[in-house]
## 1
Amino acid sequence: MQPHQLNPLIEPQFDAVTEYILNHLGSNVPLVESIGHYIVESGGKRLRPLLVLLAANACGYEGKQHIPLAAVIEFIHTATLLHDDVVDNSDLRRGNATANAKWGNAPSVLVGDFLYSRSFQVMVEIGEMAIMKVISNATTVIAEGEVLQLLNQRNPDTTEESYMNVILGKTAMLFEAATECGAILAGSDDESREALRLYGRHLGIAFQLVDDVMDYLSSSEEMGKNVGDDLAEGKATLPLIHAMRTGNEEERKQVREAIRKGGLDDLTPILEIVRNTGAIEYTREKAKEQVDLALAALETLPETSFRDTLAQIAGMAVQRTS
C-alpha cells in the first residue's frame, strides 16, 4: 500500500496535489516541460507533499492552500534530485534512466533551477511570510548539506557525527520544512508547530538511514538504483562508518581503501564486511531510534486519523524495502 492510501480522507487531497503539480510544469521552452514531466512522473511516492497535507489536517486546517504548498515541497525535492544525479553522475533513479542520462547534465541542472524558481513563485501566491522563511532557510541548509557530503566524498575519516550532519541537511531538512509549514498554514500553536517540526526531522533522518542500509541489501529492481551506488561514489555512509569502527584491522583497511578509490571493484568483500560487523543491524537500530523520537513528538497533537497516519508512516520508514 502506498502511504497516501493509508487514510481515505487524504486521498482526494493527494490527487489534487498531483493535478496541481502537473498543471504548473508548463513552460515556453518545450525541453523544460519535457524534463519536468519526466522526473515528476517517474514513480516516486511523493511522501514529502503528503506530509504537508497530513500535518495541516492534523492541526485542523480546512482551507485549500495546503495543495499548492505541498506542490512547492515536491518541486523543491524534484529540483534536488535533478542536481544530485548530476553531481553523483547517476544513471538510474526509481528504476528509470535519470534525466541527465537521457538529456545531459546541463539541461538537468537548468531544469532543476526552473523548478526551484517555480516553487518560489507558488510560495509568493500563498503569501505566508513565515512559510517563506522556513522554506528559504531549508533550501539553504539542503545546499550546505550537499556541499558537506561532497567534501566528505572519498574520505574514510568521516565520523558518525559528521555524517549525521550531512543527512540532517540534505534529507531531513525538507521533511522538517514540510511538516512545520503544514502546521504554520493551519495557524497552529507553537507547541504543535514544534512537535511537527521535530516529527519531520526525525522521520527524515530515519528515512535516509534506511536508504543507507538498502544500498547494501536491495536489488536495483527493489531500490530503483544500482546496488553499491554509495560505495561507488566513495560515500562513507553509516554502515561503512560502523564497519570501520568495529571491524578487525584488515577489514578496516579494506573499507578505507574502497572509500578512497570509489568504484565497485571491492563491492563483494565490502558487502561481506558490512554484514559481518553488524553494520546493517546497527544502522537499522539508529533509524528505529529516530522513528521513536518522531512518534514521541506526535504525542502532543490531538488524536485524529491524520495523526495516526503520520505515526503509521513513521513505522513504515524502518520497514520499507524501496
Note: The beta strands are 92-93, 96-97.
## 2
Amino acid sequence: MDTNLSRRRILALAVAAASMPVAAACGGDTRQRKQAAAPVKTGIQAIDPDRPGNDTWPFAAAESLNDSLTWPETNVADPAAKVVITVAGTSDVIAEVRNTQFDYFFKKRHPTIEIKRETSTFDGFLTKYMAQAAGGKLPDIMYNHYSWTQNFISNDIVAPLDDYIARSPGFARDDLPEAGLAYFERGGKLYGLPTDMAPKLLFYNKDRFDEAGLAYPDETWTIEKMIETAKKLTSGSGATKVYGFSPTPQPAPDLSTVFLMPYGGRFLSADETQVQINSPEAVKTMTMWLDLLLKDGVTPSLAELQLLEKVDPWKSGHAALHINGAWIMTELAKQKAFAWGATHVPKGPGGRFSPAVGSALVITQGSRQKDAAWLYIYEYLSSPGYRFRQISAPARQSAWLPSAEALGIPADVAELVKEILADYATSDGVMRLPATKKAVDAAKPIWERAMLGKIDAKTALDEIAAKVGPLLAENTIA
C-alpha cells in the first residue's frame, strides 16, 4: 500500500495532523467522545474466534440475526485468491465485539478476504494515520469524521467510489440523506460512505415541564417561544439550579446552522472563505443569547459549569431544554433520572435549520485491495449491515426504525428524525474545510471573555472576525 507523496504533500499532512485531531469536540458533536474509549485489544483477546460474542452480543443471537438478513447485490467480484484488508476505525470495547461478529460472518460470505482491524481512540486517530500517510503507508479502509474528508481529498489520500457504486445495483443511494453526503463529495464524485448521519433536535425534560404546568414543545415553536419558556423554567441557584436551556451557544462548526441562520446570520460564508460572525444579524443573535446568560441566568455560565464539576446539565436533569444530535437518544433511552421527549428545532424569522452531520468510511488511494475493500464497506454500511450492528443514528434511513426498536428509542422519535432528514436537515453552514479547528480554537477564548462579562458581544465578535479571517486562506479549494 505504498504511496508516493511529494515533500509539499507530506508537509501538508503534517499540518493537518497537528491542527485537526479534535475537530469533533468543538461542535458539541459528542458521538466521537463517547466512542473514544481505550484501544480494544484486551476486549478482542477475550472473544472466542470460533463463536465471537459476550453478554451484550451473544453469538447465537448474532448468528440468527445474520442468517435472517439479505445482503445487497454487487457486480464486483470476490478476489480469486486470499487477500488481507486492513480496517482502521474508532470504537469502544462493547461495539468492537459487534464489529468482530460482523467480520466473522462477512468472512463466511467472502472466504478469500481476511480482515485485520485497527482500533484507535478518536483523539489520536487523525494524528496516527496522517503520520502513516506521510510515511507512505495507510490501511485499506479508514474512518473519517465529516470535518476531515475535504482535506483528505485535497491531499489525494482517499479514492472516489463512483465506479464501484455504478457496479453495485443494490447500493440504493436514495436511502441515504442527500444533505449528509456533501461532506464527502468533491467535483461530482463521492469519496466516503456515511457510517452514521443525524440531525439535531430540541430535547425537553418532561418532568420539568410537568412541574411547571407547561405544555411540551412542538413543531409550532419559534425560537422566541423557546426562550420565553426557558425563562419560566429557570429556577433555584447553586448546585441545585435548573436552567431553562443548556448549553450557552459558543463558536462551533455548526453554530451557523443551529443558531445564526434562523436569523439570517452566519459564522462564515457558505464557501468558508470569509468571516461573517460580526454581521448585524449575527451580532443581534449572539447578543440575545449573551443576555440570556448574563442578565437572565437562563443558560449555565462557565463558573456554574465548574460548580457542577463538568457534569452535563442536561444529562443530569439540571436543564429543561437542550439542542443536540439524535445520537444522544441511545443514552437517553437507558437513563432513568427523568422522562424526556424530542421535537423539531424551533424556527426563527429566517426559517428552521438543523445540521445533518456524521462520519464515513473511505478507501485509501494507495490500497492494493480496493475491490475487497469495497465489498466490505458496501455490506458494512448497507441497510442489512446497520440492522446487524444496531447502532444509533444509522445513515441509511431504512435502518432507523429497526435500530430504534433494538435500542429502546421510541418509534415516534425515530420517525421524527427521518422526517427532519428528508425535509430540512442540511450541511449548509456546517464548517468542514481545513481551517475549521483553527477557526473555532481562535474564536472560543474570545467568546468566553464575553460569557464572563468582560466584553460585550459586538466587541467579541469583531475580535473573532479579525482573528479568524487570516486563517481562512487554507479553505481555498483548487
Note: The chain has two domains: 7-198+357-412, 200-356+429-475.
## 3
Amino acid sequence: MSFIAPQASPIDAAERRQRIENLAGRLQTQGVAALLLGSTTSLRYFTGLDWHASERLTGALIHADGRVDYVCPRFELDKVGGLTSMAGAVSGDILTWEEEESPYALAADRLPHGGRLAVDELVATFTWLGLARTLGQDRLVDGGPLTVGLRSIKSPAEIALLRRAKAITLEVQRRTRDWLQPGVLTSEVKRFIDAEHRKLGGEGGSWFCLVSFGDDTCLPHGGEGDRALKADDVVLIDTGTLVDGYHSDITRTYVFGEPTAEFRRVWDHEKQAQALAFETAQLGATCESVDAAARDYLTAQGYGPDYRLPGLPHRTGHGIGLDIHEAPNLVRGDRTVLQAGMCFSNEPMLVIPGKFGVRLEDHFYTTEEGPVWFTRPSHSLDDPFGV
C-alpha cells in the first residue's frame, strides 16, 4: 500500500502578525519596551526569518506597539531584506551595523529612555553580556516567560505541520524495520533513514537519528561505535525530520529475531506506562502528574524508584514544535497546567543495565475532548506497525 502523508500548509504572515500582537500585549502588561530575538527558533516563530546563529548578531526587536525592527550586519542587508519580503514572513525596518560597530548599541538606540529590554532566552551568553554592557543589567529582562507560554499553545496550522512530519517519520520507521538485515551497520541504517525521509517530503533525518543494537540500547542516547546488527539483537531507533521547521521525534524498539521472555515482559510494561501517561494528560492536569502516572506504575512493577535503574532514567516527555525539545515538559516539578493545543512526546523509557533498553515514543496534543495521538503507538512487540 502506498503511503500518502497528510497535507499541511506553511505558516503564513497573518498568523505571525497575530503572534506578534499577542507578544506586544504581554510586553505592555509587563512594562517592557521590546523583546530582542536572536537567531533562534523564536525569531522564526514570530517573524518567519530563519537564520543560522553565529558570533554576529542577526535578529529582531519586537516593540510593545507591535513594530518590528530587524538587526543585521550591513553586508547581510540584501539577504535579510529578501528573506523578510518573502511569503510567510513579516516585514519591518532593517537596522544594520558595520564590523567595527556594536549591534547592541544599535538595538539600545531604538528603545525609549530608560526602557527595559526582554532578551530571547535562547540566545548565546555573549549576546546577553553585550547588552548588559550597553544597557546595564537592571534594564534587561528574561524573555522566556513572555515567549514560552505563547509558543507552547499550537495553532491548527502548527498541529497540521507536526502531524505531517510525524506521519512521515512513522512510515520511515516501518520501512527501516522491513529493510534491516544481518551485518548492517548503524551508520548504514542512518543513511537509509535520511534518504527515506527525503523521499517522503521531510527535510532529511541525518541531523537527528539514534540507531542502537544489542546492549547499546541501555544508553538513552545510544552507543558511540558503528555496531553491526546480529540475530536476536534488540533494535532501538529514535529519529525525526522537519516540515516547515516543525519536528517529528519517534522511537521504536523491537527485536531482530526472537525476543526473550524478559524482554517481552519489559516491553509490555513500557507500553502500559506510555498508555497511562496518555490517559492522564487531560486538560487541567499538571505536566508532572503525567510523569507521575507512568513512574508510579513502573515503581509498582518493581522498577526504580525515582530515576534509579532498572527503571525510567529520565522525564516521561517533552514539548515539541520548532524546537525538538520545548517547554513545558512532562517531568516532576513542572506544574504547568495542560491547556488545549499543547504538544508532547510520550516516552517513559525502561533501562535494564547491561542487557537492553526499551523506549516507545509517540506524540500527542491536548484538546477539550482529551489527548489525541499524532501517530498510532506500537501495536505489539511482534507487529509494532500493525493495526
Note: The radius of gyration is 23 Å.
